[in-house]
Amino acid sequence: MAREINQQAIADRLNISRATVSRCFTGHAGISPVTRAKVFQVAAELGYTHMETRTPSAKKKSRSGAHFTVLICSEPDEYFHGAYQSPGEQIMAGVSEYAQVHQARVDVHIIPPQVRSIGNPAFDGIEGLSKRGKSGVLLIYPFPKPIVSELSLKFPLVSLVDQADYSNFDCVDVDHSGGIAMVVDHLVAAGHQRIGFYTRDYPVEASWSFRRYSAFVEKMARLELKVSPDDIIGMFPQRKYEVERSIDEAARRTSLGVTAWICAADHQAFDLVNGLRARGVRVPEDVSVTGFDGLARSPELPNLTTVEIPFRDIGMTGAERLASRLNRRFHGRRHVSVMGNLREGETVGPPRSNPQPIAVSG
Question: Least buried of 8, 25, 88, 269, by fewest C-beta within 10 Å?
């Protein structure tokens, strides 16, 4: 009976029928991958973990037997952020599409960032982690190193974001270097030379932030443009501030001559644009701001210039790599980089013509 209640709760949350929810869990061919992914994600949020699939009839195509356990490192409130679409949601649509075509089973679980071991109660009841054979793990977002080490020793593993310092599993990720290079070229073409880099600290080390920062430094060096350490926010050796203090610092550096900020992620850029405007700094008239990820946004948020990542392709490719590792467990590691595209928005303009410092309020 609990199964029916849980499925109805998922249906109510998404405003769909309980029958549609049930068909998502049985891999029904008439359900779109996007709907299926949303059902999986809400099920994870509600703690619905009993996603058994029905035994196919003789008339149906038999399943591959593959079982994908998808682990998402995030606080549920952050993952289900309403102002913009989560990258994980888009990745899951790709995973779901691959699984549906190839008749693989998918379970999705959200693991809080503070969890540091698979022995934690947060991992209790995850059926795929109690099996071997046809069971493999997909990681979405960076996980603490102890968890990655434990999982990689026990299961075929594919990470859908680069996990630093590991070499025994596959990774499918965006081409950080190519994306940042496009952003820098776009800003330079608009006339910018004094460009800063903005990021922030996270509960789990954000390897993607480090890679985008290193790509920024490399591209600026190739163009023979100076990077002042004072124009770097949120990256060692500079101090790491909480969000409001980091925006204060960005406003101060803008008043001293920075004409553009490259943010390591769109959600950072949304906060920075809104924070700068609240402090009397106009975007893009006083300073340009770019993001990275190409997130779908609500109308209240700025239309960013950003790097649009094909998250759905990353999800499909990651699922394909995991299926391959399930069949060939001891083949060499592969790192697949997927190229993004520059998406021009309304947050980049030419550098301000007035060389005098601008006034910052607040």
Answer: 8
Tokens of 10: 């998922």
Domain with CATH 3.40.50.2300 in the chain: 176-308
Beta bridge partners of 289: 261
Name the DSSP letter for residue 80. T
- Which helix or strand (DSSP H or E) is residue 210 part of? helix 207-222
Q: Report the side by side order of strands in the sheet with 288-290.
A: 232-233, 195-198, 260-263, 288-290
Sign of CA dihedral 343, 346, 347, 353: positive
Beta bridge partners of 232: 197
Q: With beta carbons less than 8 A apart as the criterion, state whether 175 and 207 touch.
A: no
What distance in Å separates the CA atoms of residue 332 and residue 247, rounded to the nearest whole number?
A: 44
pTM of the model as a whole: 0.78
Angle CA 238–239–241, to nearest 5: 135
Write out pLDDT tens, residues 262-321: 999 999 999 999 999 999 999 999 999 999 999 877 788 889 999 999 998 999 999 999
Q: How many CB atoms lie within 10 A of CB 191?
A: 13
CA distance 201 to 89: 23
User: How many CB atoms lie under 10 A from the CB of residue 296?
Assistant: 11
